[in-house]
Predict the structure.
Amino acid sequence: MANFIGKGLLQEYSQEVTLTQPIMVASLPAILQIPDHLSDHLIFLRNHLRLSGKDEVLNEDEIIIFIEVMGG
């Protein structure tokens, strides 16, 4: 199972998901049911490295999810 760990405001979206095939990072907000108003501001990490929307997630991965810090 792929383990998704949301941090901070995203903790409620933490879950384990069985993936039958690799999925693109860009599809994770929909799969994890993260609201649209948050999905544009997410950072996904695997092994301490930031993932892009084109990267694939495999069934045995652990993915940490953060929300971007915004302000000015």
Observations:
- The chain is about 10% helix and 35% strand.
- The beta strands are 2-6, 15-17, 23-24, 42-46, 49-50, 56-57, 62-67.
- The radius of gyration is 11 Å.
- The chain has a mean pLDDT of 94.
